[in-house]
Amino acid sequence: MSLPHQYHQPNAPDSVTGDSDSDLDLDLDELDPSVDHSSNPQRARDGHRTSDFGGRIPLRNLRAGRLRSQQVGEQEDEQRLLHDEGHHESAESFDSVHDSDALLPVYGRRRKRQPESTLSRLGTNLRLPSLMADSPHPPTANGQADDAEPEDEHDPASNRTVAIGQRQATRFPPNAVSNAKYTPWSFLPRTLYNEFSFFLNMYFLLVALSQIIPALRIGYLSTYIVPLAFVISVALGKEALDDIARRRRDAEANAEPFTVLRFGDSSEVKTGSKGKKASNGTINSEGISEIVKPSKDLKVGDVLKLSKNQRVPADLVILQTIATESQTAEAEALKAVEEVHSLIEADADTPSAAASNTHAAAGPTGEAFIRTDQLDGETDWKLRLASPLSQSLDLQQFTKLRVTAGKPDKKVNEFIGTLDLVEDPDAPYTEEENQRPKSVPLSIDNTAWANTVLASSSTVYAVVIYTGSQTRQALSTSASRSKVGLLEYEINSLTKILCFLTLSLSCILVLIGRLDGEEKQREWYISVMRFLILFSTVVPISLRVNLDMGKSVYAWFIEHDEGIPGTVVRTSTIPEDLGRVEYLLSDKTGTLTQNEMELKKIHVGTVSYANDAMDEVTSYVSQAFGEAGDLVTPSSVFMAASSSATRTRREIGSRVRDLVLALALCHNVTPTVEEEGGQSVTTYQASSPDEIAIVRWTESVGLQLLHRDRTDMVLRSVKSGRDTVRVRILNVFPFTSEGKRMGIIVQFLHGQNDTSDEIWFYQKGADTVMSTIVAANDWLDEETANMAREGLRTLVVGRKKLSTEHFTEFTRQYSQAALSLQGRDIAMADIVAQFLERDLELLGVTGVEDKLQRDVKPSLELLRNAGIKIWMLTGDKVETARCVAISSKLVARGQYIHTIAKLKRKDAAHDSLSFLTSKPDACLLIDGESLSLMLTHHRETFISVAVLLPTVIACRCTPTQKAQLASLIRSHTKKRICCIGDGGNDVSMIQAADVGVGIVGKEGRQASLAADFSITQFHHLTKLLVWHGRNSYKRSAKLAQFVIHRGLIISVCQTMYSIASRFAPNALYRDWLLVGYATIYTLAPVFSLVLDRDVDESLANLYPELYKELTGGRSLSYRTFFIWVAVSVYQGAIIQGLSQILVGISEEAFKRMVAVSYVCLVLNELFMVAAEITTWHPVMVFSIIGTALVFFGSLPFLGGYMELEYIITVGFLWRCVVILAVALVPPYAGKVIGRTLRPPSYRKVRGV
Q1: 1190-1220 residue pLDDT tens
Q2: Residue ranges for the binding site for ATP?
Q3: Catalytic member of 52, 84, 99, 587
Q4: Which string of DSSP letters, residue by residue, matches 796-850?
Q5: Annotated binding residues for Mg(2+), as ranges?
Q6: What is the pLDDT of residues 1091-1117, one digit of tens each?
Q7: Domain architecture of the chain: domains with CATH
C-alpha cells in the first residue's frame, strides 16, 4: 500500500508555485543557429513551448516540478553558451530536475578521455552508438546498425547486458516457436530407432536379412523385403505428416507480425527534431522508423510497440507506456503548443499551455495491465510499470539505455536487473552537470513474459531481453517426446510369446527329425533357421500395417464427428489410449471455467437479492442517487429514502444503498473509453476479474464508475446522467494472498472544490478474515456458507467512519512504519489493524460466480461415473479453486474437502497424510508450497495416498509442478494419464501425459499446438474418451487378435505339412499364395473390423460404467490371446490334417491337397470375420462378398500352385464343405455358449 504522494519518485521535486516568466528567461542558445534550440532544459523548466512539449517533458516534472532560482538558471545558460562556443557541443545533466537533450557530434579533433566508470569497463564492446562516442558497430548507409548476426554465441549461464535498439555483441537464440518432434537430420535416425525398438519389426528385419544367405532362402527375396519396407514406410510417412503439420502450425505462430522501432544514425536527426507521437501511433521523427517483423525474426535488443490484446512474443522489459485514450488529446495539445511557439509567446500560464500540461500528463502513464493466464494460470490481471528512467525519455534516446539481466530462468515471478543510462563519456564533469551513468533497478513489475497478453488500452514500448528457448515459457516446457500407446506395448509382449513358441516348435521339429534319422543333409541350426523363416507368418508383418491404417481411420472419424466440431488429431499413433484413461489432470482457467465473472447474489443481513430481485436493488439506487441534484455522501444517502415507505423497507433500502456505494468505491478498477464501431464504449481494467464483475454490477443497478485515477474517483447516476459521488482517494490497501482483503480510505466532496469532513474506510475481503474485523453479528457465517455451497466466491463488505484527528494520527504512524528498514510490512499491517480494522460496520456479502464452460457439470459427472479420477491443477488461489470445484460438481455434495495450505513442517505433512489414509473418500485441496514440501520429503507416501482419492485439487501450481505430478502418477500407477489445458502454462503437463488434450483458448493456441488432440470445448472430452476412445481400443484389440489368428493358422498348416513330410523344412504355400493370403484374399474383410462397434453412442453415454471395463484391458489380454491361439491351432490342424487325410500328400496329389487346404483356409477366414462382427456395416458386407468374388475369380490364374481341373469336381466341393464344417462349428458353438453363460456387459445393455 502506498500513500498517494508515494506514487511519485522518492526524490521528486515539489510542485511549482508562483513561478513567473520574464524576458530574462530567454535562452541565450537561441542566438546560436548551430545549437539545438529545443535542447535547453531551462526552456522546458520555465514553460517555453517546444515542438515536443507532450513527448519531451517528463511526467514527474509536470506533476511535481521544482525550479531552481532564476540566478542559477542564468548561470547555467551562460556556462553552456561559453562551452558551446568553444566546442560546438551541448550537454545536459540527467538528474531529477533536468530532461535529457540531444548532443551534437564533434568531428576532426581529438577528444579528451574521461576516467572510465565501472559500468563502462564492464561492457566496453557493448557501448551504444551515440552522438559523441564511436560505436563498435558503425551504422550502415541507411542509418541502421548492421543486422548481421554476431559471430560469438552468448553463454546462457552468464548475465547479459542488452544494448537497446542496437546490434548485440553476442548471438542469442532465435525467437522461433517449435513444437516439432524432429529435425530434418534427426527424423530418419529417431524414427527408425523407434520402429525397430519394437520386437515385431526387428524380428522381420532379421528374417528379411536372412534371405540374403543362400542356404536360408525360401522363395523370392521380395516376399520378405517388400512387406517390411511397406510397413516401415507407412509408419515413417505417418510420423512425417504429423510433424509437417506441427511445423505448419508453428510457422503460423512464428509469422505473427509485430511492430519494431528501427533506430537510425543519431547524427542524422536534424536540429530541433524531436520524437513527437502522433495520434495514430506513428513516430514522426527522422532517424526512427517503424518496421513490421514476424515473431521468429525478433532479436534481443529490439524495441517492440505493443497495443491492447496483443500477444507478447518474447520476454520483454517495459520501457514506456502511453495511454491510447489520451493520444488524440495530446496531439491537439501539441498542435496548440506549436502555434503558440510560432508566435514566440512567452507566457507559460496561458490556458492553452495549461491544457497542454494536462494532456501531456495524461499521456505517458507508465502503467499497463497484462493477462498471464496463458503463462501461470492466474486469472488476475497483473499491473506492470515502466521504469521512471525510460518513461521520461524520448524514443530516440532509448539507444542510450542498457539493460543488465540475469541468466535465463524458469521462475515466472522473479526477475532482477538494472536499467542504465549511458551519457556522453567525453562531456566535462561538474557538480551540477553530472555525466556519470545513471542506473535504476528492474524487478518483475517491469517485465512482460512471452505469451502474456497486453490487457490495458495503452501503447507499450518494450525491449526484448530473452528469446526463443530462453524465455520463461520455453524453460518451463518439457521437450516433445514420441508417444507410444499402451496397446502397442501389449502387442509387443504378445509377439515375443509368439516368437518363443515359433522357436520352440522349430527346435522340437528339428530334434524329432534328427532322432528319427531324417533330414541330415543340412546342419541342425540351418534347419532351425529355415523352420523359423517358414513359421515367420506366426508373427504377421501385416499386423503393424493394419494397426497403423486403423489409427488413421480412427483419426478420420474423430476429426469428422459433427458432435465435436473443430477437433484435430495431432498425434495419430495413440487413439486407443483414449479408451484406457484412468486419471484426468485438468487445468481450471479457460478449461473448466470461462474466466468471466458475474455477481449473482448479494445479502444485506435480513434479505438477499438474486436474479429478478435485482430490479428492487435498482429502484433503491435510483431513489438515492438518481434524483439527487447535489453530490451524495454516506450521510445524505440515509435521508434519500422515500418517506411513504415503511420503516422496515427504508432500513433495507438504506443497507442496500450503502452496500452498492461501498462496492462502487472499494476497488482498484480504472474505467477506459474506447471507440468501437463509431461509438464510445466503456471498458474496465483491474488486476482482478472479480472487481470488474462487481463494478459492472453496480453500473447495471444504476451507479456507474465514470472516472478513476490515483487521487480521485467519480461515480455517475445511470438514470440522471449526472455525477452524484466525488471522492478523494487518501489511501489504498491492495489485495494480497496473505491478507485476503483490500481497503480504501476516501474523502467525500460536497462540490467541485469544497471538501467535507466525511472520511470513510471501506474494506472487502474473504469471510475467513473479515469475520474477525467486522462488528459482532449472527448471520455472516451462515450466509457465506450458503453461498459457498452454491459455488459462489464470497466477499464480505464493511465500512468505518474516521474523524479527521483519527485519520491524521493514523497517517502519521503509518508513514513512520513505512520508513522501517526491518519488519516494514508487519509494522504497517499492525498500524492498519490498530486504527482501521476494528469493529467495522457490516454492510453485506456478495457472491460472484466464475462462469463455467458449457456442460462442465454433466461432463465431470459422466467421467467420474466412468471410473476416471479427476485432478484439478491450477495456478489460481485456494479460495477460487475451492469455489470452482464446488460449482462444477467436481466435489460431490457433502464430500469432505481436506485442505493442506502453507505447510512448512515435515511432521505436519505426515499427520495430514495419515488422516487422508483413514478417509479415502475425501477430496484433497493442496497449495503449491505444501505440494513442493510433499514432493521433496514424502514423495512416495504422498503419491500412494493421493492416487487413491477420488478428487485432488492443487492450487498455486507452477507449470513444472503440473508436469511433475503427471509424470509421478504415470510412473507410480503405470496407468494411462490424460492431461487437458488451454494455456501455455499447461504445455509441460500435456506433453508429460500419455494423452495430451489441448483446448483452443481465447488468448492463444500454445496448448492446442503442443497437444495430441485439440478440441474447442471441455465437454467434447467426454465423447472423445467414452465414444471414440472405446471404439478405437475395442476395434484395434479385435483387429490385432484377428491378424495374429490369420498368421498363426497358416503357420499351423505349415507345421502339419512338415510333420507329414518327415520334418523337412519345405514350404507348403509358396510366393503368391503366401502374399495373396495376407493381402488381397483376407486384408479387406479383416480390416473392415475397424468399422465394428459393440454399442451405440447413446448407450455409451447412458452407461459410462462400460468405459471402466476398458481400463482393465480385457479386450486384449493373455486370456483372450491364448483363446485365439487355441482356435488357430485347432482350425489349422483340422484344415491341413483333413486335407492331407482326404486328398493325400504324395507328389501326384500335392497340388490337389494344396487346392483343398488353401481354398478352405481363405473361406475359413471370411466366415470367421463374419462371425466376429457385432454391428454390420455396408462396407463389411461389400468387403466380404467382394473378396470372395475376387478370390474365386483369381483361381484360374493359380495353376502353377494347384490343380485347376480338380477344383471344378464334386469331390473337391464335398471335401471343402466337410473340412469347413469341422473347423468352424465347434469354435462358434463355444462362443455362443460362453456368451449365454457369461454375457458381456455390452450385450446386457443392448438387451441381446
Answers
A1: 999 999 988 888 888 999 899 999 999 999 9
A2: 587-589, 691, 735, 764, 793, 874-876, 956, 962, 985-986
A3: 587
A4: EEEEEEE-HHHHHHHHHHHHHHHT-SSSHHHHHHHHHHHHTSSSBEEEEEEEEEE
A5: 587, 589, 982, 986
A6: 999 999 999 999 999 998 888 888 889
A7: 155-172+298-334+364-423+437-476 (2.70.150.10), 186-254 (no CATH), 518-569+1025-1246 (1.20.1110.10), 578-593+853-1023 (3.40.50.1000), 594-849 (3.40.1110.10)
